[in-house]
Amino acid sequence: MSDVPRQITLEEWDRRYEELQRAGIHQPSYSGPLSRHVEDGDKRLLKLRYDNSAAALRLWNFLLTEEDRLHEARTSGKKLVGTMKDLGTVPVMAYSFDNVVAFYPDGAWWIPCVMELDAGLLEIADSLGIDESFCPVRAMLGAFVTGAHFPLPDLLTCSVGATCDDFSAIAQRLNGLGYPILWWEAPHRRSGEPGEATVKLPGGFSAPKCQVEFVKSELERLKTALEELAGQHLDEKKLSAGIKKANQVCMYLDEIRQLAFTTAVCPMPALEMLIAEMLAIHFCSDRDETIEVLKELLGEVRTRVQAGKGVLCADAARIFWVNPVADLQVMNLLEDCGGRICGTEYLFTHALDRIPEDLSPAEALARMALADPTVGSSADRAQRICADIRRFGAEAVLISRIPGASHCALEGEVIGEIVQDKLDVPVLEIEVSPVTDSMRPTLCTRLEALVETVRERRKR
Ligand code: SF4
Fold this sequence. Notes:
By secondary structure, the protein is α/β, with parallel strands linked by helices. It has helices spanning 10-22, 54-64, 66-75, 89-94, 111-114, 121-127, 139-146, 165-176, 209-230, 236-262, 270-282, 287-307, 329-336, 349-352, 361-370, 378-392, 411-423, 440-458; strands at 7-8, 50-51, 79-84, 100-103, 155-161, 182-186, 198-200, 206-208, 317-322, 339-345, 396-401, 427-431. The strands form 4 sheets. A 4-stranded parallel sheet has the order 4-3-5-6. It has a 4-stranded parallel sheet with strand order 10-9-11-12. β5 (155-161), α8 (165-176) and β6 (182-186) form a beta-alpha-beta unit. α2 packs across α11 (270-282) and α16 (378-392) crosses α17. The longest helix has 27 residues, at 236-262. Residues 135, 137, 164, 166-167, 347, 374, 402, 405-407 line the site of iron/sulfur cluster (SF4). Iron/sulfur cluster (SF4) is lined by residues 135, 137, 164, 166-167, 347, 374, 402, 405-407.
């Protein structure tokens, strides 16, 4: 059995799975050959390349069995909460109860990619008046209507206020279709006026104290609704324990990211890193297992780093990636073109930053919610990106535009200008649709050009 780190196809994974089985490697109950997920219609999996470690197998199986887990949770009497748009905060609160499971209906964003447009969700959204001028999150409407991708939640929450136009329109349409939503407001984060009290947020932004107080009161409303749903009281002790667990996830991810983005030979591919980061936003419907999955992934990364082994050439161009890609295959493509990921800003950095444990838990969560990169200005986002480019030593920035996304129309340009101004690194903006097959040659040319530019600059 070869333990040399490399990227393999789905077919190769099935053979390797058999090898791992024969070698008696422990695997969790949801494990199995990855190709079985293609039978559910996840055809894009056939075109991806995967890391060949047992840790990566566990990560993928964990991700791809989320729907089963949600059904099991309901059968066992747990309450399901669909937490829309905040990408991190409400799940921390929800998982502080022992009988509540939170998930992101927004995750339907990736169904058109994973099922290569076969699920018909975008057509359903079209028929409901939400056409392709909206971002791929419109697939969520189809997922609610068909009920085929996640069980309908017992409670649906959605943050509003500083929310992109796409999401607010789509969530209102959902509400209009008869799905009740508990709205809560996250205001646009602003700088303090002269003389106004401000507080530092996780990740480095700051916000006026009154905004933090306001979000705290909104979270209090959510807490009451969750308590009614769960039939349990959520006291400070339980919420603090929930924050500690969430911070364990952040701690593992922080080390994995640090090693994967800064070690000379990249120890973990971009695609697995993207999946791992995504676990932070809602723990893939099982917070404790998320911790175990990340612990094993970190173990693999540490082992590879100590052995000086990795999956890509040491001279790969070090790219900082901004925004999540609608087509997962593009993460493989970057590596095929000679790049590697050295830093990311996938719109949820607030879920990766440690939540303060030295404050009241309500205050800490309010600060986390206001640290969301999407509730502040694009200039704020750019500052954070610059800080992380320095931290991870990236040599270029790639901004992947999301088709139809209202936050992307000009934001990429604003971020690009600030980054170039401050750091003098090349910036490329590309648009990534849910299935990029027809654009692959163009994307390849553009990615290769960026990699070439990085290599030329190294000769200076
Ligand atoms: S427009 Fe951007 S922030 Fe809004 S739902 Fe789409 S991807 Fe998310």
